[in-house]
Every structure is written in structure tokens, then in C-alpha cells.
Amino acid sequence: MKITKALFMTSNADYKKCPAPTCPEYAFIGRSNVGKSSLINTLCNNSSLAKTSATPGKTQLINHFNINDSWYLVDLPGYGYARTSKSIRGEFARIITSYIENRENLTCLFVLVDSRHAPQKIDREFMAYLATNGIPFVIVMTKIDKLSKKALAENVQVYKDIMLEEWEELPPMFFTSSLHKSGTEEILDFIEETNNIIKNEK
């Protein structure tokens, strides 16, 4: 898939005010500073589409983008930023969970994790929450350019081994670098294939 149109639509704190659920929707989420906005901009080949910042926690609302007039890309608030006040973290959690649990056209959630780290408790708990609620998701490992091929392979194996202590099988995994644009084609192909399945089921 090639993205020829990526248009910002709206930002909301309330899922009920999101655009009409007329097409498939793919949302991106992860701990603050995991590289979410950079990945979104790389996918859409637009360096200023999603807000990036050296300060974690920049995304604070549900941000919708119209992609090729055929699907929505959603940039969700990051979670787990320790320097955010408890009340703000609680508000972020409310925004995220109400959207995830109620957005009827949410097709898949892309959960971003830093490839340099073993599975973090907050990520594991979030994925368990998704599974409990029957939310389809995939795992996206970011910043793979920060590691050698050998170190990446070792980290990925450790990650899988730890996750498989709790899961019978893992969801699809993608490996990305916004710097080198690695993994973007695979993600877009996955979205295109999923959209085609949805069309054929109608």
C-alpha cells in the first residue's frame, strides 16, 4: 500500500465525538517516548503529521487521520509517563479505555514497545487487558536501528520467551526504525490485507 493522502481530521477526549465509524480504524499506542509519533509520520511520509517532542506525553487526545479516503489512522495518548501527575494519568487511562472498549470500527491496535528492553510490566498488563476484552492487536518493536542485528535477535528472543510464559501464542510482530523506515512497508501491507478481508466479508 502507498499512502497518497493523510489528512488530519479531529482531536477528541470523548470517543463519542470521533468521526463516524464508516471505515476500518487502526490505532497506535505505547508508553510515552516509544517513538509512536515518529512511526506514524514515517508511515504517512509526512514529518509533521503527528506531533513529536523531546518531552514525553505530547499526545493527549484521540487524534484521527483520514488515510487514502479508505481507513482511519488513530494516534492515541501514550501511557505510563511517570512525570505526569496521577490525575492526568487517570484521565489518559479513561480516554484510552473508553475508546478501545467502545469504538465499533476499531480493527486493530498497534502496541508499540522499545526493542531495546525486555517486556515491561505496564506493557504486559496492557496487552493482558486487550486480550481480556477481545481487542485485536499486534506488537510493534521500535528503534531497531539502536541495536546490532545480533543484539536485536537476542532481545526479540528474550521478549518472546518471557511473553510465552503467559501466552499460548503471540500476536503478529513488526520491527521498525523510523530513521531507516524499516518495517513500514510490512505494516502497511498488513493493513491493506486486513482491509481487503473486511471488504470481502461484506
Q: Would you kindly provide a written description of the structure presented here, covering whatever features stand out?
A:
It is a single chain. α4 (149-163) links the parallel β6 and β7. Helices cover 35% and strands 21% of the residues. The chain is α/β, with parallel strands linked by helices. It has a single domain (6-196), classed as Rossmann fold (3-Layer(aba) Sandwich). It has helices at residues 36-43, 86-102, 121-132, 149-163, 184-201, and strands at 6-12, 25-30, 62-67, 71-75, 106-114, 137-142, 173-175. It has a seven-stranded mixed sheet with strand order 1-3-4-2-5-6-7, sandwiched between helices.
Report the order of strands and helices. Answer: EEHEEHEHEHEH
- Poorly predicted runs of 5 or more residues: 53-58
Whole-angstrom Rg: 16 Å
* The CATH fourth-level homologous superfamily: P-loop containing nucleotide triphosphate hydrolases
The order of strands across the largest sheet is 1-3-4-2-5-6-7
The CATH architecture is: 3-Layer(aba) Sandwich
Q: Which structural class do you get from the secondary structure elements? A: alpha/beta
Q: Number of domains in the coordinates?
A: 1
For the secondary structure, the number of strands is 7
Tell me, rounded to a whole number, the average pLDDT: 88
Number of helices: 5
The biggest sheet, with number of strands, parallel, antiparallel or mixed sense and barrel status, is: 7 strands, mixed
SSE topology:
Elements: E1 6-12, E2 25-30, H1 36-43, E3 62-67, E4 71-75, H2 86-102, E5 106-114, H3 121-132, E6 137-142, H4 149-163, E7 173-175, H5 184-201
Parallel strand pairs: 2-4, 2-5, 5-6, 6-7
Antiparallel strand pairs: 1-3, 3-4
